[in-house]
User: Which sequence fits this backbone?
């Protein structure tokens, strides 16, 4: 019988002479998984390593870590978290709660599909074209730019502060442009976490396909926590929120 081989740039292992189903030395992107990474690398370091093929440098690691914290809990107003909460209050198992969050979180309204459109617009930075014009070209049918709020024309004060912090990174380019644009459009187009994440992924050099997956993954902790919080509660206590600001 021919020897089974694992063909992967990410994972390699030396066969254990005791059994062909065991790996004696396991390496992840060239690093000894259990001897070097475990106990020395953070979870985010390993996540970056698997996707990018090399360890993050200090600036990348810091910006990626701050972005991960920003995305960790989208809050119960977010549609993907709301879906997870519906699963939780209905008694669904964690797998179903997380799948509900992923399904809704992949959409156009505050989801990973919108993130990709925003990244496409932000990629025009440096071409000489005005960022607001490029975003306007990719607006939804109701005139909302990708990465901006469908419910409010204002950016939340906390998000403005978060953008300012991330824009202090030495890698910040799209983040800086977005911060400058916000000063002129706030009140008409309300920046969201999607827009900030799109700019951060651009500055980190993460391609859109990987960014789409990371965006979904990094938001799951909040979905899990809010879904779990609803377990065993009465549907009468389920929180609901208005979909848009009321106008007099």
Assistant:
């Amino acid at each position: 019988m021919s020897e089974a081989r694992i063909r992967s740039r990410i994972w390699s292992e030396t066969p254990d002479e005791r059994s062909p189903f065991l790996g004696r030395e396991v390496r992840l992107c060239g690093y000894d998984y259990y001897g070097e990474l475990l106990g020395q690398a953070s979870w985010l370091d390993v996540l970056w390593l698997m996707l990018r093929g090399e360890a993050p440098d200090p600036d990348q690691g810091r910006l990626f870590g701050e972005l991960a914290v920003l995305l960790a809990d989208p809050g119960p107003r977010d549609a993907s978290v709301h879906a997870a909460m519906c699963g939780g209050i209905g008694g669904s198992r964690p797998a179903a709660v997380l799948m509900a969050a992923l399904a809704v979180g992949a959409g156009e309204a505050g989801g990973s599909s919108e993130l990709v459109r925003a990244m496409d617009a932000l990629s025009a930075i440096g071409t000489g074209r005005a960022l607001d014009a490029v975003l306007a070209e990719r607006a939804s049918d109701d005139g909302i730019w990708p990465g901006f709020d469908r419910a409010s024309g204002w950016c939340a004060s906390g998000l403005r502060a978060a953008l300012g912090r991330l824009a202090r990174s030495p890698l910040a380019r799209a983040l800086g442009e977005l911060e400058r644009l916000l000063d002129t459009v706030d009140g008409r187009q309300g920046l969201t976490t999607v827009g900030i994440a799109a700019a951060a992924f651009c500055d980190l050099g993460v391609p859109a396909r990987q960014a789409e997956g990371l965006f979904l993954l990094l938001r799951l902790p909040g979905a899990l926590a809010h879904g779990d919080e609803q377990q065993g509660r009465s549907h009468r206590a389920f929180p609901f929120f208005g979909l848009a600001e009321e106008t007099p």
User: Anything to note?
Assistant: The chain is about 50% helix and 5% strand. Residues 27 and 33 are 5 Å apart (CA to CA). Residues 58-71 form the longest helix (14 residues). The longest strand covers residues 19-28.
